Amino acid sequence: xxxxxAPPGFQCPYRDACPHLDGRSTHWIKELLRDxxxxxxxxxxxxxxxTEENAALWARAERLEKENAELRARLAAEHxxxxxxxxxxxxxxxxxxxxxxxxxxxxxxxxxxxxDPIDRVVRVAAPSVCPHCATAGLRPTGLxxxxxxxxxxxxxxxxxxxxxxxxxxxxxxxxxxxxxxxGELRNCQIGPxxxxxxxxLRQHMRLSYRQVREIFGKLFGLNFVPASAMAFDQATARxxxxxxxxxxxxxxxxxxxxxxxxxxxxxxxxxxxxxxxxAQFGFFHIAPSRSGEVALEIFGARFGGSLVADDYAAxxxxxxxxxxxxxxxxxxxxxxxISLIDLLPQGQQHQPDRRFCQQMxxxxxxxxxxxxxxxxxxxxxxxxxxxxxxxxxxxxxxCKNPCQHPEAENFRQxxxxxxxxxxxxxxxxxxxxxxxxxxxxxxxxxHPVIFRKLIFGNRSTFGAKCLAINLSxxxxxxxxxREPIHxxxxxxxxxxxxxxxxxxxxxx
Length: 508
Prior knowledge:
Layout: H1 26-38, H2 41-82, H3 87-91, E1 168-170, E2 175-177, H4 192-203, H5 209-220, H6 226-253, E3 256-266, E4 269-278, E5 281-287, H7 292-299, E6 306-309, E7 322-325, H8 327-343, H9 351-375, H10 381-385, H11 388-398, H12 406-416, H13 439-444, H14 446-455, H15 461-479, H16 484-494, H17 496-504
Parallel strand pairs: 3-6, 6-7
Antiparallel strand pairs: 1-2, 3-4, 4-5
Helix pairs in contact: 2-8, 4-6, 4-16, 5-6, 6-15, 6-17, 8-9, 9-11, 16-17
């Protein structure tokens, strides 16, 4: 018979080593349970751990939410910069001011300049029947109506010249030799005018070699293969190499130089096209890197002039005597930060950061306006230079307090950093005729940028070098108002010496 309860005075034989408790004593287990039940700090300890873990998770969630909002703002800003709203949608708004179409009232009309000289005269008899109402029996009035009409001639006849040379025997060369006539290229079946025009169409009009061939075939009746058009470019570049080196020397000796660089491609690999120059000349250079060694190759180790460029650190190696940071870049950066702040949720927008960027834009705008007044003669150079302490005082007041937005804080530290933009902000007020922006270099690089989108770069380093030489010659000829086709023709016929005289005649 089994008892439901132990009889009085029963002692378990396994009391000190219970097999159900892994051989442990029951007394020890009871004491352990009693200690656990009486431990008042146990729950508070776990609660504290959970509270800390919960706080850490909330902090992480808040940080991720903030990062998510910033990334969304960056994405929206990037999307807005590439896909702007159409003008048609913006014009549908009723609150936009209405402006009448066409020229203002009283504006003089535009007329073409009359061509001069007149190549031919065609006499037209007076009509006997009115061309408007078909009335017959008209009588001549004796008056004349003259109309000048200018037109082109499609596919003009090419001029084929046979140069018949009398030879003479050279005892030193041990063979008969002959001299070239004026306008003749030795051992070339295509003349210098056609080659110079092909180079102009390629470099200035940004046409492909096949398009150049098609134009010559359709309009001029001169046929050649696309490889010949490429050979014309290479021949012009080889002849213009000495002038390209002269332009590099002019860069190193100039008082004011604008410099910038942008992406390029050489055989599908990343490269960069560099520009250095001013209103009188331009120098292009294509290199596979964007390092400071390329800047040293262009400017030399000690550039003694004033450099206008962006904040790219590669220009620090040339150690220019004066350097002006591009205020347009800084203004654009402040505008981008404002757009990023506006795209954040309302609770995360820090208005002091937005106000800081707005005040910096106002300061930079006032400085650029002062430069325009100085260049226009509305204010003297001495008076403009006297404003430098006031501008730096405004800068310190604007940048006094740190910013919460990381982009705004980086921008503030960049403006106050002596190794970056601080000492380069108002250099243009210390040197007369020094511009506050680098717009000239950026506008000059527009031509290569469009060219890159059409031809996707060069296939070889030699082709990139030829392109840089021809672009330098073409841009310098444009700056000095020289005829580029005549320049290329002179290069092919007479070499770099006479071409340099044409290019730099009566110019500095």
